[in-house]
Amino acid sequence: MKIILFIFLTLSLNADDILTQYRLSGISVIEKQLDLKLTSEEYWNKELENKDTSFGYLESYNSILICDKNSSNLSLYKLDTNNTFTQLKTYDAFTGKIPGDKKFEGDLKTPLGIYKIEQRLDKESKLDPFYGPLAFVTSYPNIYDRSRGKRGSGIWVHGFPINQTRDDFTRGCIAIDNESIKCLDNNIDINNTILIINKDTRKVNVPKKRLNKILTELYKWRYAWKYSDIYNYLSFYAKDFKKTDGTHFDNFKIAKEFVFNKKDKKIILFNNINILKYPNTQNIYQISFHEIYKTKYISFIGNKTLMVKVDEEDHMKIFLEN
Questions:
Q1: Predicted confidence band at 14 (pLDDT cuts at 50, 70, 90)?
Q2: Would you state the pLDDT for residue 7?
């Protein structure tokens, strides 16, 4: 009953229209209309209406860590009961000895970028006391880092040495005092926390109009993909596009044309969508989501990341995909 009511409300059709289409053509016609509705700005306006888009569009994360390299601090924003990201804590922080964006192992720089917290380490994990009582392992290098040839690993948020002194800088990590790292640990769940390392802690305040357009185009891309519209599907890709496995646009195009020509029925679902403006850029956004993709012969369930450029008319072009 709930599904039928949803269809009525979404399509703005009466019961007889729905039943007639179902009787004559089956559920596939109604499904296609629902998929098309997901590409409408009207739908996404309603979804965005009560969303705090200070940092972007976020479905997976209720905690945001912002490392301000210029001011040497780490701020925690949390989603409050009003669904607003509120600054809860700010900790003094040490970052890399050398200013600028990290490029290679040992350059003593802290990277600029967007990172997940992949692991929590403590004495039970045999954490070296140099890193204090706790450490959080980040996902550096991410796919955008790797695409630009950035190297290195082991970028952590950690504490101060236990019973030791330390310099007032790091080799690239973010270090806060031990009471602060414990406080941070008490206030976050690493599974729904994202780390943004930037030159400042100002909220980005991404316009809802732009996020609406990106979400609309994300679902237009999905629609073209699901219904094997190769021309419109490829129109969302930049000519300098490449996959993380090194495949460039021309070879990607050939492979997709072969797959699309089969006209296989596809199930393509996106959830836990996150859209964040990438630090230190003017028009680059990171889109991540959990994807379910199934055909008669292929099945993929996992996380997907797209790096996109957005032009002045808010049209997106995918230039990197994992």
A1: low
A2: 46
Residue 25, Ramachandran bin (φ over 0: left; ψ between -120 and 50: alpha; else beta): alpha
Task: Give the three-state DSSP class for 237.
Answer: strand
Q: What is the mean pLDDT of the chain?
A: 92
Q: What is the rounded CA–CA span in Å between residue 247 and residue 242? A: 5
Domain with CATH 2.40.440.10 in the chain: 61-198
What average pLDDT does the segment 217-236 reach?
A: 98
Determine the average pLDDT of the residues in 53-69: 95
Give the helix/strand (H/E) hosting 257: helix 249-260
Give the type of residue at 90. T
Question: CB-based contacts of 213: which residues, under 8 Å, 6+ apart?
Answer: 41, 310, 314, 315, 316
What whole-number distance in Å separates Cα of residue 57 and Cα of residue 48?
A: 8
Out of 3.30.200.20, 3.40.50.720, 2.40.440.10, 3.40.50.880, the CATH code matching 61-198 is 2.40.440.10
CATH hierarchy code of domain 21-50+206-321: 3.10.450.50
Q: Where in the chain is the domain with CATH 3.10.450.50?
A: 21-50+206-321
